[in-house]
Amino acid sequence: MADKDKKLRRELLKKKYSNNGFDALTEEEKLELLLSYSCTGDTAQLAKELLSEYGSINSLANTDVQLLMKEKNVSEQAAVLIKLIPCLSRTLYLEHFKITTLNSTDSAKSFFTSHFIGTVGEQLIITAVNKRFRVVNTKVLAFGSPSQTYASYRDIADFAVKSSCTVFFMAHNHPQGVSVPSDSDILFTKNVSNALMRLGSVLADHIIIGSDSAFSFRENSLLPDFSASPLKGYTCK
Amino acid sequence: MDSKNPHAGHRSRMRKRFLASGYDALYEHELLELLLFYARPVVNTNNIAHAITDEFGSLGKALSADKDKLCEIDGMGSSGALFMKLMYDFGTSYLKRSHNNETLNTVKQLCDCISEQFSSSQAKICNILCLSSQSELLRSITLPVDDITNGSISQKELAAMILKSGAFSVCIGLNHGNGLTLPNDVDYAVTRIFAELLSAVGIVFRDCIIYGSENCFSMRSSGAFSFR
After folding, report:
1. Given this structure, which CATH class describes domain A99-216?
2. CB neighbours (10 Å) of residue A32?
3. Residue B38 parent element (H or E)
4. Is the interface score ipTM higher than 0.90?
5. Structural domain spans, chain A
6. Rounded to a whole number, what is the distance in Å from the CA of A64 to chain B's nearest CA?
7. CA of A176, closest CA in chain B: separation in Å?
8. Would an 8 Å CB–CB cutoff place A83 in contact with chain B?
9. Cβ separation of B60 and A80 shorter than 8 Å?
10. B61/A177 Cβ within 8 A
11. What is the pLDDT of residues A8-62, one digit of tens each?
């Protein structure tokens, strides 16, 4: 395709988007438009190839970065632009929901859902909140499968001791999966709850974020309650 | 390369930081600066990023802002504003689930889908249905059975194709054309290859369906193969 033709085509596409909106474009046109900002090659052809390989722009954006860069004709600039999409989603979600206080299972689920947007692979995190359940800080404990939890007990204790907070949340994601906990998830959670109690802290909840749903351990009575009174200030739906 | 664009080194470093650690590695105004690289390929976007943050407050608000207001920022112009709106649209559409994919919950639905894929073809092909955790059809891959059995397509390539679709479970279809739907040695060999592969990458193996003369045979329902 001659350079002049390419330029003309890009201008036409931009005009189409500008006049008729995002939904007026086909998936292929959307991807072509996106790619035209990051490379000067034949973006129409590249968009076609990528879509036949990945199925949709969303699954392209969900792919591991290394895998993405292996594709021929996908430059570093293009890969970054594609990976920016889930980041922007996360920013927009946070902006929209503005969750900083986790005083109910709903807000906790929303908060952790936003945290895992665009995350490739599994991650286990721990979040410290103050007495009013305002988020103080978050630490990633493990990447990959949560069967790497042996090392985490030490990290959790470390985090809890160093923190000035006494209330903690745990969360992990099941990308492409359902949010139902496995037996090892349940056992691990009981152990962590136990350990935190010994350190004078409490595990408020463990939230699992699936691809379409969220699961709260406390809502499903899977957290051992060591104190006589239930956790004050945290409401289950 | 650096002499062409004095900002190339800085931009390259920022891109690498982003690729290495993602969202958490950059401050909001750095993300904005990175984003603006694409809208304004030649100038220093740091100033524009700061101007935008000063005017709108946060990256989220800037993305959601009116196109005309974005135009007015020094250095943006209408093309820059159009790019921001485009990225806003991509960001919001990423969160939407497309519900127009067909859902294949029951064996009958799987059989119907496979029948449609093969219809009157006589080719010895295998159809891989990649399904989401809600059994939505994400992607369908068609390969010649011989390529799978003689190793022309390596296990690694097969796994990469399936993983790229983001599948939670997989169902395969094998075409017998006008023949009977009785499973033969090749069918079992292919099924075994997939069973090992899928268990290694942690994807559920839903079923293997043989299609012949407009009939379907489900290996799982008939107990011909033991799925985990």
Report:
1. alpha beta
2. 23
3. helix B28-39
4. no
5. 3-93, 99-216
6. 9
7. 6
8. yes
9. no
10. no
11. 888 899 999 989 988 888 889 999 999 988 877 788 888 888 888 887 888 888 8
